[in-house]
Amino acid sequence: MNKEVDLKGKKVKLSQHVKIGEKNKMNQTYTDVSDMFAAKGAPSFLTGSEIIRDAVKVASVDISVAYPITPQSEAAALIGELFAEGYLLDYFRGESEFAVMGQCAGAAFGGARVFTTTAGPGTLRAMENFPMWAGSRLPIQVVVTCRGVNSPLSIQPDTLEMAYLLETGMLVWHAETAQDLYDFILAGFMVSEQPDVHLPLANCCDGFFVTHTKDTVNKAPEDLCLPPYDPYKSPVPCMDMECPPVRMMRDPFIMKSNYISYATHASWQQEVKAAVERSRKHTIAILGGLIETENVDREILIVSSGTAVSQGREAIRLLEAEGIKVGLVKIKTIRPFPYEEILEATANAKHIFVPEFNMAGWMAREIKALIPNNERVYEGPRVAGGMTMPSEVIAEEIKKHLGL
Amino acid sequence: MKKRLNIRISGLGGQGAVTSAHLLAMAANNAGLFSISNPFFGAEKRMAPAESYARIGPEKIYDRGELVYPDIIMVYHPQVITMQKSYTAPFYSGVKENGLVIINTATDLLNEEDHKRLDDLNVAVFDIDATKLALEIGGTELSTNMAMIGACIGITNVVSLAEMEQAVQDRFGKKYVASGGTATLDEAIKKKYAKKEQLLQKNNETIKAAYAIAQEWAKSSDNLALAVH
Question: Residues of A numbered 77-96 whose beta carbons fall under 8 angstroms of chain B's beta carbons: which are they?
Answer without folding.
Answer: 77-78, 81
